[in-house]
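Let's practice the habit of predicting before peeking. Look at the sequence and jot down your guess about where helices and strands might fall. Then scroll down.
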Amino acid sequence: MMEYRWKQGFPSKHVDPQIVGERLEVLRDGGIIEPEHVVNAARSHNDCMHPLFEWEDGLAAHEYRLEQARKLVRSVTVIIMNDADEPKEYRAFVNISTPEQSAYTTIQAAMADPGTREMILKRAWGELAAWKRKYEDLREFAAVFKAMDKVEPKIANG
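Done guessing? Here is the structure:
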């Protein structure tokens, strides 16, 4: 039997991840899970996944537009000339969200503020560490993982 858990930060609404994981396995039925099938299954008020979705259409539409706005902001890039006078493309804005607020600022402004810089570096390291956990069984990335192990103390100690 597999043990299912929520990823850190997922708004579980007090729904047991074990029950949801098992439900998703039933939907997979030895094949694949399509999001459309998950939504259709969760429509039933009796389904364990039902509370994890927003069913009020007006609020759901607003939440979808907020996600579109996030995607829009994440999709804007800026061209900056580097030291060799060659253009380099960077993302223009970076997420500086806290539990109380979802917001973005320019990468330059974020990195100029020590607190925000630390938050971004820790989040980036967390994402990289999650990627490592996801692919740690692939020998082809062993050199990358070894390099990460050397960098980790530098990030952790500021």
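How did you do? The mean pLDDT is 90.
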